Amino acid sequence: MTVAAPARRTRVPRWDPLTVGVDIGGTKILAGVVDSHGSVVEVQRRPTTGHDVALVEDTIVDLVQGFQQQYDVAAVGVGAAGFVDASRSTVMFSPHLAWRDEPLRDRLTARMSIPVVVDNDANTTALGESRFGAGVGHRFVLCITLGTGIGGAIVLDGRVYRGANGMAGEFGHMQVVPDGHRCPCGNRGCWEQYASGNALEREARELVVARSPMAHALRELCGDDPDQLSGPQVTAAAQAGDPISVELIADVGRWLGTGVAGLVAAFDPSAVIIGGGVSDAGELLLAPTRDSMVRHLVGRGYRAEPPVVPAVLGPQAGFIGAADMARSAARRSRRADRRRDRRGRWFGVRDEL
Amino acid sequence: MTVAAPARRTRVPRWDPLTVGVDIGGTKILAGVVDSHGSVVEVQRRPTTGHDVALVEDTIVDLVQGFQQQYDVAAVGVGAAGFVDASRSTVMFSPHLAWRDEPLRDRLTARMSIPVVVDNDANTTALGESRFGAGVGHRFVLCITLGTGIGGAIVLDGRVYRGANGMAGEFGHMQVVPDGHRCPCGNRGCWEQYASGNALEREARELVVARSPMAHALRELCGDDPDQLSGPQVTAAAQAGDPISVELIADVGRWLGTGVAGLVAAFDPSAVIIGGGVSDAGELLLAPTRDSMVRHLVGRGYRAEPPVVPAVLGPQAGFIGAADMARSAARRSRRADRRRDRRGRWFGVRDEL
């Protein structure tokens, strides 16, 4: 009898496919072909044609089929604004797209016969930034997106942490002021009522309404009509040196930093990434954020403070992350197929797709 | 040439050793022999003899050697009140034990020639409760220990999540009231200033100081000397039906619930476990906690709310969790040894011990 040498694992070069990522926003759909280093091979942009989910599906299918004529696409990842269920197949509720219970994954898979994953756009964006952007080299990353509200996500060891119901990362609705400003979520004093684009606008408009002489630059910008004043205008005014606009953005930064200090106490992350429209203010926002974080951080002086850094991938982060999720899913699917082939039965990790 | 059949993994019964867990508290050291189901085979209790780390070490060595005469002990896990470094070898700072930079693991290993792990007692307690107590069946568990302050820990898939510096879970120092009560950590408005044993005592004492007629039961309990009034007395009075004591505990519960709602928004846990001395109040505390959590939870009505449950293992949770950490470490160490034996070189996971 011949005794076989003990089996050794040999290193096979990793299967390294191209995947497509799609980011469905309220106004535009951004899609790209992405490789495993997060490099964008090609990008396409289309308007979000109304709120009809069928039209959005048509657009996605059309984009993917266009890419498939040029590239060998292994899977598609879709990030959508809204709540996505834990199995990542259904957009349960999307306020911006006016969707409810849309089984996006199954419908796209049926039309394209290619694996599809669906996730919340905050998660796809966070994954893109963590793995290929500002989070490179950090194990435990908190991503905070300052838009009209606060979008958040947690990326641990290169994977999005989703929690029990797929709803982790809703940092914006942690209460920071008891009985504070009313929030559309129904509560009062939510963090995003103090640190967000909406908060910046509200505060700026109050100064215009009060006809504050301090706010003459802001009043000029909106022709004394507070409803015309927007967050980006305040940011532009601050960057041009208007002192009250600088102060308004610093105020958002201070609220942001206080909340970040709390999240750092709870999560002890390796890095905190700040993205979204409000972060266009750059250091006008981030310097007060860091000051406030350090001032409110437990154990300060005895601990390393995590870097608080701006997102670097811009609007592409969403589809880059979605493409990366699709790549993981395609790999799992392939492993499952291979196991089934060899042993003749099904081990079933495919339902993770 | 004979072709060997493809190697298959065969299921070997898992190595299933007994381990010892040690919980070093400010007043007592609790140690036990624990099996892999979390069952306590034997338990011993000793006083914490002063703050001299050498005396504590003597006690631990003595306890372990006692156990070793009867049982085959594979490893020792130690939970200590204080900050433990990320490699889990050194107690960096322990206010209760008055230790600084004590390399507890190395010193114990040197004296006992058996693998030793050291961790923060909040982590060991949380692990014990999550794996063998109130958290059984739940993947993502938040543990909140209400003592003088708030101790916290995060257990994901049966493992303690420690974060970048081993400092995750400091929930008690998230700010919940801007410019609120001063906290010994140096900040203001920390959660543990509102939801803790200290908070309960402070509020009860204020009523005694104010000679509130509402507080006649409390005034009797302490002989009109507010400094003599303790949290457990308030709890006992509440359980005996004193309305103001019931209200004081409900107040702590409401603050607890508001903060839990924020943590649920951020983590989306499968369960929240409430332990510690204040939780002896049972439903007098937990019913208002749940009410307040639901009222402040984002997406309520659209999401499953996690159960908020009392800890069930009591003071044994700490050493049961420490023993479980030791078991994982012993298994890793054994795997590393076996790999080294077979291939003749060292793969070095032992430094995780």
TrEMBL record, chains A, B:
Name of the protein in question: Glucokinase
What Pfam families does the entry give?
ROK (PF00480)
Isomerase as a keyword of this entry, yes or no, is no
Write out the entry's keywords from A to Z: ATP-binding, Kinase, Nucleotide-binding, Transferase
GO terms (BP aspect): glycolytic process
Q: Where does this protein come from, organism-wise?
A: Nocardioides anomalus
Q: Which CDD domains match?
A: ASKHA_NBD_ROK_SgGLK-like
Task: Give the similarity note.
Answer: Belongs to the ROK (NagC/XylR) family.
Q: Which domain of life is it from?
A: Bacteria
Q: InterPro entries attached here?
A: ATPase_NBD, ROK, ROK_cs, ROK_glcA
Q: Which Enzyme Commission number(s) are listed?
A: 2.7.1.2
One Gene Ontology cellular component annotation held by this UniProt entry? cytoplasm
Q: Give this protein's Gene Ontology molecular function annotations.
A: ATP binding; glucokinase activity
